[in-house]
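Human: I hope this is not a bother. Would you mind checking the protein record under this note? Thank you for your patience.
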Amino acid sequence: MSPRETLLALYHAGLDAVRGGECVGRWLQRHPCRDATHAIAIGKAAAAMAQGAVEACDAAIERALVITRTGYRDPELDNDPRVEQLESAHPLPDARSLAAGERLIRFLETTPEHAPLLVMISGGSSSLVERLPDGISPERLAELNRRLLASGCDIHEINRIRKAVSCIKGGRLARWVAGRPTTVLLISDVPGDDPAVIGSGLLIPDGAPSGSETLPPTLRDLCPTAEPAPKPSDPMFQAIQWQLIATNRQARSAAANAAKTFGLPVTNHKEFITGDAAAAGRRIAQELVYLSPGVHVWGGEPTVRLPENPGRGGRMQTLALAAAMALAGRDDIWLLAAGTDGADGCSEDAGALIDGQTVSRGSATGGNVNLALLDADSGRFLAASGDLIRTGATGTNVMDLIIALRMA
């Protein structure tokens, strides 16, 4: 295989290890549904997770509600009369997010008392479902999230603020579970895999403060805080158990193991890439020049501070383009940087696979690499250079994979 084919194969090996349907199915084979179960799946991987539950539990699934990103629904599930699929807004919530939140609450309210619940949550849930205190409009919610996503804050800080203004996040949704035995299966899209941060902790209590004093002053008037979140000691959580079923570490390990089967030396780096995406791309590229030949794998979730009118692309395309600038002219290093959910930022591209000729290819079509980074428009340049990766919905979301190949 060519270096590009090799890196794409390793990337897909990482994805295959954490696809929602297979991960849910494996867990349910070890912990089968024994009674009529009411299932909920929320997130970018919701359709895949729900399909895994339906296949594993078969007739034990009484009914299911699936809430996912627009374009990520599973047409096969539409043929199952027990399953209701809703498409909602991501990355910016809107009126559909509020409608999905109301439908979620009604689903819980109409679940028979004492009936078991199977709740499957993956990344994207924070935008897809919401219920707000009275008087807050969808437009103000969208503006709050727009500011947060453009701020360069990490996901822990963003979700902390989202929880503060929500009536269902921060464990508040547990009020509608009302003591029903509930199993929560989680695909982690947050550094550290904290269940209280994944999807802003719909059913997981958070001991952190959530009052108005926790909000930055510029946001307090935009979206007033909700009632305080329940404490972890609240009895409402006694019937809820949770389990992580897919993480970035699993994806990295699978990519590294695939490299070994190709006979390639591989280093699975323990460092988790965070901070500014462009700076991270430059640093990784500079390190690769001196690292040993072979495959190098990182996980990460860096950030991008967006200008007022950002262009096309997200954090992985930014990281990849910055790395391409640092590697310009080299013929011995290739680097793939891509999200595992199939969408990087507001684009429909997962990321990019760059080499030493990326900058020259993009520049030959009139692209300006410096302006592309400055304007958060890396995707446009990488489209011109022919380096974008597009996967469509992957059925998972475990943050980002960065995989490099350095030839001897």
Observations:
- The radius of gyration is 21 Å.
